[in-house]
Every structure is written in C-alpha cells, then in structure tokens.
Design goal:
Elements lengths: L13 H33 L16 H29 L7 E8 L2 E6 L4 E3 L1 E5 L4 E7 L4 E5 L4 E5 L5 E5 L5 E7 L12 E6 L1 H9 L7 H11 L24 E3 L5 E3 L2 H9 L22 H13 L12
Helix pairs in contact: 1-2, 4-6
The structure holds dinuclear copper ion (CUA).
Length: 317
C-alpha cells in the first residue's frame, strides 16, 4: 500500500505502534464528527418549527439510549487510554542491554557522546537493530529531542537527566529536531541520525577516537578535581568510597535510603550537602561551575565502571 506522504518514515520499532494508535484515534474522530454533524443537520430539518403556532411535544428520556451513548464512548476512550499508556510504558523503559549514549543540549546544538569516547555534534551514528538509550540533560534552557521517523520525543531539562530509547529498524539518515522553543536559533538546532549496519558502525566507532573512553576521561577528571583526596577506594578517606556504589542503595545521615543512580551522583557532585551519606560529615565542597555537564556525565561513567557490573544478558554479535 502506498504510504501517505503526510506521515514520516517508519524507522524504529515504535513507529508502527504509534501509527496504529493514531489511525484508531483518526477513525474514531472522523466517525463521530460525521455522526454528530449528520445528526445535527438531519434533526434540524426533520424537527424544524413549521408554523408560529406549533409547540413542541414533551418527550421523556429513553434510558436505554442514554446508557448506550454513554457506555460506547466510554469503552472507546478506555481503549485509547490503555493503548496509549502501554506504548508510553514501553517508551519509558529502556532495555538493560541498550547502547548507552550521553546527550547534552545547549543553545543551539546537540552534543552527543558514545561510551567509547566518540563525540558528535548534531549527528548521531547508531547501529541497526540494537536498542539505543540516551541519557540527556541541558546546559541552559529546556530543549526537546525529537526524531519523527522514530516517533520519539523527550524534553531535555537543565538540572536533571531524562532518558529516551529507540530501536532502529532501517538503515538510513533520519532528521533530528529540537521541539521546544529555546531561543533565536531554535529552528537551527537540528541534526541527523545515521543508522548503520552493525559492521559499518563498528568501523565508524573505531575510526580516530580522540582520547580514551568516557569512563577513562571520567577517571582523569576524578583525579584532576582531587576527588581522590577524600574518596579512597578502601573507604578510609573523609568521603565514602565510590567503589561498587552505583545502582546500590545508600544510607543517608538523615535516615533515608536512596539509590545511587545518575541523578543522585550528579546532585552529590553539584550540591554535596543535599544528601549526606550516613557516618560522614557534610564537608565536601560543591563542584558547581567547576565541571561541565559533559564532565559530570563522564564522572558518572567512571563511577559506573568501578561499580557492580549490570546483570544484563551478554550481547551477541
Ligand atoms: Cu533547543 Cu529548541
């Protein structure tokens, strides 16, 4: 069947699912628009006032009719709700074996970095058929990462991490947009996603890596910022050890327990006194202004690399 040029390409596993839901919404909307406007015109003509003396008959409510026209639309809207919610849940849960990419938005460009250290601006190379998970933040204002061909869109907000994932089903070049007005050159904050055969991707990735992996850069930053003075690996320092901390529960001085995820690590670097680990003094200085968002992301990768390994099934190539 020929595709309507109104629709973008279907290039991720989400694309057909989102489109099927959209078709359902369109069919329901068109059907009821025709039904309601048809009824308005038909009834206006059929029951028009024929003379000045004519008075309307009093009709009593038909309960069957009222129940029917309440229950059917309720059912149709509940289908919309559950269908939409199930796609939403799927889109908000990246698989554990996803390829991790860091994204930093700023006025007016997308900065992307692969775990192997490759950096890209307004371009992202990914392999075909592998889930890709983006961890995204902004250096300034709210942006929104939007790839119509993949049917994914997610706000990129300063001061927090948002995630987005997709699994490309087609090789090719797909448009990336910023979908949140972010200033003068918002419309120029665009780019391309290149979906490549896995072999081509591996070749691309190995071509000219500038400086080590993200975790290695994070390790270097960790010692450049003198974090090592207090965070000793064996826990003998003034700060807690960071070995094996990522993804684990952490007991705080105020009695709470939190999970050491990306957001927690970021906060502990920029606002160290927000969550003080039980048994330690709140004497870590803030690194706000001393380390960029990209620096924070590489520090997180370093801390992940000295943490427990994820229990995800090994990738087969
Ligand atoms: Cu960034 Cu619009």
């Amino acid at each position: 069947m020929g595709r309507l040029p109104l629709f973008p390409d279907q290039a991720s596993t989400f694309a057909p699912e989102v489109d099927h839901l959209l078709y359902y919404l369109l069919v329901v909307a068109v059907f009821f628009t025709l039904l309601i406007f048809g009824a308005i015109f038909y009834l206006a003509v059929r029951y028009r006032r024929r003379s000045d003396q004519e008075l309307p008959h009093v009709h009593h409510t038909g309960y069957v009719l009222e129940i029917v026209w309440s229950v059917i639309p309720f059912g149709l809207t509940m289908v919309m709700f559950t269908w939409g919610a199930s796609i939403y849940m799927k889109e908000s849960r990246p698989p554990a074996n996803a390829l991790q990419i860091n994204v930093v938005g700023k006025q007016w460009m997308w900065k992307l970095q692969h775990m192997e250290g490759q950096r890209e601006i307004n371009e992202l190379h990914v392999p075909l058929g592998r889930p890709v998970r983006l961890t995204m933040t902004s250096e300034d204002v709210i942006h929104s990462f939007f790839v119509p061909d993949f049917r994914v869109k997610q706000d990129v907000v300063p001061g927090r991490y948002s995630t987005l994932w997709f699994k490309p089903t087609k090789t090719g070049t797909f448009h990336l947009f910023c979908a949140e007005y972010c200033g003068t050159k918002h419309s120029g904050m665009i780019g391309w996603i290149y979906v490549m055969e896995p072999d081509d991707y591996a070749r691309w990735l190995s071509g000219g890596i500038p400086g080590g992996t993200l975790a290695e850069n994070g390790q270097k930053l960790f010692s450049d910022l003198a974090c090592t003075n207090c965070h000793h690996a064996d826990g003998s320092g003034r700060g807690p050890t960071l070995v094996n901390v990522f993804g684990r529960p952490v007991k705080l001085a105020d009695g709470r327990t939190v999970t050491a995820d990306e957001a927690y690590i970021r906060e502990s670097i920029l606002q160290p006194n927000a969550k003080v680990v039980a048994g330690y003094q709140p004497d870590m200085p803030t690194f706000q202004g001393l380390v960029t968002e990209e620096g924070v992301l590489s520090l997180i990768e370093y801390i992940k690399s000295i943490g427990p390994k994820p229990a995800a099934a090994p990738e087969t190539h």
